[in-house]
Amino acid sequence: MRYFVERRREVMLHIENYMLEVMDTYLKPIDTNWQPSDFLPDSTSETFFQDLKYLRENAEGLSYDLVAVLIGDTITEEALPTYESWLSMVDGVNRDEQGGWMKWVRHWTAEENRHGDLLNKYLYLSGRVDMRQMEISTQYLIADGFDIGTGNDPYRNFIYTSFQELATNISHRRVASLAKQNGDTSLSKMCGVIASDEARHAKAYKDFMSKIFAVDPSEAMLAFEDMMRHKIVMPAHFLREMGLKIGQTFGHFTDAAQRLGVYTAVDYVEIMQQLIEEWKVETMPDLNEAGEKARDYIMALPNRLLRVADRMKNPTMEYKFSWIHS
Ligand SMILES: [Fe+2]
Ligand SMILES: [Fe+2]
Questions:
Q1: 214 Cβ contact partners less than 8 Å away, ≥ 6 residues apart
Q2: Ligand with an atom nearest the CA of residue 199
């Protein structure tokens, strides 16, 4: 991956100042933000055992696929150390602790950290999960890292995070509505608040990327094209269970998500379309020749992918995850 680091540095300097300005718009004050304990039985309360019983009764109604997807989502959230270390390695930013980007990364991580925390505690209390197997998968996923094709390029990085925050918003939102349908309203609330965090984060990354398009349109367009050509891979694409090779569990997790309609090939295309609109790709001014070609490639891609998605069959293979007690 080749690009002009000097130019990236100039652009990032400009974006970092902007980040400091808008940080409070996109991240919530800690003291009044929701915390996992707001949604979980209080173990110091006299009604704790009743509350726990109620939580477990509700969790009994969740379908096998839904529990599998929830575990996969939780492990994805729990691999936050991978994302934080990757984000802090991005090129062209001020390494100073008070620099806009490093400050953003710390505050974003702090908000994100509540997601895995809440879901993990819920799953532990639910009685549906072999926690040891889930924890082994989590440790593997963090140890295995990921390979998402952004390198340390800040432009590719913002495109990836914009995409991913939108994808996680969709999947948590859908799990929330399925949980409700399965009779678990408290799980539904948990996934709902997580989904709204993801939506807010997506707005931030899309905004940062818009700023990049405004000052460096051709290079930004080339980065977007490159990410789309290689396809956006999910952060948990190395997911595995004990005894399996890197990535061997991931396909079963995404099959379950596709079957439930929690995250599908059509969602992938719709996210792409949303980004194309958000960044006004079609009417982007001041592109050089390479930038124009990249734009044309991007504009033609959603329809091509929709045709492929239309032909895809829903995966039917049953798979027994070691995470779930039969
Ligand atoms: Fe998250
Ligand atoms: Fe997120």
A1: none
A2: 2
325 assigned to some structural domain: no
Active site residue 112: yes
The answer to whether 115 and 77 have CB atoms below 8 angstroms apart is yes
Catalytic: 198? yes
Task: Tell me the per-residue pLDDT of 45-57, one tens digit each, with 9 for 90 and over.
Answer: 999 999 999 999 9
- Please give the tally of structural domains in the chain: 1
Cα(111) to ligand 2 centroid in Å equals 9
- Kindly give the distance from the C-alpha atom of residue 309 to the centroid of ligand 2, in angstroms, as a whole number: 25
Q: What is the pLDDT of residues 170-224, one digit of tens each?
A: 999 999 999 999 999 999 999 999 999 999 999 999 999 999 999 999 999 999 9
Catalytic residue among 172, 201, 237, 252: 201
**Residue 271: inside a domain:** yes
Give me the CATH number covering residue 276: 1.10.620.20
Q: Indicate yes or no: pTM above 0.70.
A: yes
In a domain, 195, yes or no: yes
Answer whether residue 318 is part of any domain: no
How much of the chain exceeds pLDDT 90, in percent? 91
Domain that holds residue 12: 2-25+46-311
Q: What is the pLDDT of residue 326?
A: 67
Q: How far, in Å, are 145, 222, 236, 313 from residue 226 at the CA level?
A: 21, 6, 21, 28
| Residue 38 known to be catalytic | no
Which are the contacts of 82, defined by CB distance < 8 A and separation ≥ 6?
141, 142, 145, 146, 235
Based on the residue annotation, tell me whether 77 is a catalytic residue of this protein: yes
Q: Is 172 a catalytic residue?
A: no
